[in-house]
Amino acid sequence: EVQLVESGGGIVQPGGSLRLSCAASGFTLSTYDMSWVRQAHEKGHEWVSGILEGDGSTYYTNSVKGRFTVSRDNSKNTLYLQMNSLKPEDTALYFCVRVRRGATLGNMYEYDIWGQGTQVTVSS
Q1: Fewest C-beta atoms under 10 Å: which of 28, 87, 99, 122?
Q2: Which one, of 20, 24, 33, 49, lies nearest residue 117 by Cα?
Q3: Whether 67 contacts 84, CB under 8 Å
């Protein structure tokens, strides 16, 4: 079965860090472009970061540049999102998604596999 399973969310104080994991099964993660997307309460989905297949080039939305790092471990078939210097506005449900071949990283309509999401809450 093709699926993505996220973990690593939690409650953290402003300025803290979390690392999200996304374990892939049923396909080889490194052969697809992958993205992280988040959804704050009662808001739409927001593209956060992406990593390309092959050379692993990474991309970020402006609000997380310099604070978040996306990576993957091919041996574990797992995607990561290291989040540092967290802010209350980072509070959201975070999803990892598989990008349909040929689509752009930030196009929500071109994600063919979604994980179940992991909640990140940044609060003092």
Answers
A1: 28
A2: 20
A3: yes
